[in-house]
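Why should sequence recovery work at all? Because a backbone constrains its sequence more than one might expect. Tight turns favour small or flexible residues, buried strands favour hydrophobic ones, and helices have their own preferences. The token representation captures these environments compactly. In the example below, the structure is given first.
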């Protein structure tokens, strides 16, 4: 009897069943500019007519080793949302709103329920952010990934009017930094966080996280939040000079990316208190304070750069939207980030 693809580890029938389950999820994110359905070799999307002189903005990212926590917890409904929201924030900082999204899921063995759970999270976040899930790819790679593991990546395209692109050119010395809170670790620093929590503290995913009174898995899988809806009105009114999405590298690795040559920033770390998870990780892991700020977002997931005369009205509008923003520093002549505390 000859060999079969299934005996080699690739189940084409399971893949087809999973694809059928995903069709309704993808269709639920369609909008008036979506011109194709799942199953074509390429997705079709019309450039929206309400964007004057449109510039397309694209980005790609993954979820990183946060996936390891999902494997340990046996929970797969959050990482898809992480992926979309991270990508949305990455193009938002250039003033763009998302148009469509593509996902790539590679797995060792086709577990239809896991695939459906992951893509359900992707579709939900796409709907929350007003973008179409235009398509994607699910690959079975049994000799590359373990049977109970997968990798996940996403690709986003958005649009912004040429006159509203945020490229740092509006930023000047004396501009003020306003912080918006994160929803936890977001999708960065998990290699260090996992080492502290699972190796040094000896916890399991279903144990209660000390001081937080929640399961470890739930705490570490808190969804990376999207800042689109709260910031879009301010962007439309052109009241923001720049935005920094605080991801890998923390504040010192990301804030300088949106500042023009010759400008740096001073950040007052005493202006906010990082949440209990960050304090726990620092204490339990014996991590130096500067290293914490270089690895994690430390509770500041997005930083706004605004003119001094806009600080009070911007703070007022953000509070009205349910946020708890704070003034965390200012732009100055120089290079990089220094701490004023």
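From this structural description, the recovered sequence reads:
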């Amino acid at each position: 009897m000859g060999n079969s693809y299934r005996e080699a580890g690739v189940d084409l029938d399971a893949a087809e069943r999973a694809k059928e389950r995903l069709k309704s999820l993808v269709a639920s994110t369609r909008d008036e500019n979506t011109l194709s359905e799942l199953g074509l070799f390429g997705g079709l999307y019309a450039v929206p007519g309400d964007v004057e002189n449109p510039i397309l903005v694209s980005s790609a990212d993954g979820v990183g080793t946060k996936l390891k926590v999902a494997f340990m917890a046996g929970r797969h409904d959050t990482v898809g949302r992480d992926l979309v929201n991270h990508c949305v924030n990455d193009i938002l900082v250039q003033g763009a709103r998302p148009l469509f999204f593509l996902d790539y899921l590679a797995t060792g063995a086709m577990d239809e329920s896991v695939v459906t759970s992951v893509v359900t999270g992707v579709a939900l976040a796409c709907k929350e952010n007003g973008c179409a899930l235009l398509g994607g790819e699910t690959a079975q790679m049994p000799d590359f990934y373990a049977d109970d593991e997968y990798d996940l990546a996403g690709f986003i395209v958005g649009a912004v009017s040429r006159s509203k692109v945020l490229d740092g050119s509006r930023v000047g010395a004396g501009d003020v930094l306003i912080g918006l809170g994160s929803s936890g670790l977001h999708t960065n620093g998990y290699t260090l966080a996992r080492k502290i929590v699972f190796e040094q503290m000896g916890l399991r995913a279903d144990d209660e996280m000390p001081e937080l009174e929640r399961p470890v898995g739930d705490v570490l899988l808190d969804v990376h939040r999207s800042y689109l809806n709260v910031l879009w009105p301010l962007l439309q009114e052109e009241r923001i000079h720049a935005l920094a999405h605080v991801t890998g590298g923390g504040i010192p690795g990301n804030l300088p990316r949106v500042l023009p040559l010759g400008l740096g920033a001073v950040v007052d770390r005493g202006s906010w208190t990082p949440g209990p998870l960050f304090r726990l990780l620092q204490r339990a892991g014996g991590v130096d304070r500067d290293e914490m700020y270089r690895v994690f977002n430390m509770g500041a997931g997005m930083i706004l750069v605004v003119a001094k005369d806009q600080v009070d009205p911007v703070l007022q509008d953000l509070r009205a939207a349910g946020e708890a923003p704070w003034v965390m520093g200012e732009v100055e002549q120089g290079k990089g980030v220094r701490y004023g505390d």
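A few observations help interpret the result. Strands lie at 54-62, 97-107, 132-140, 150-161, 176-181, 242-245, 263-267, 300-306, 326-333, 336-339.
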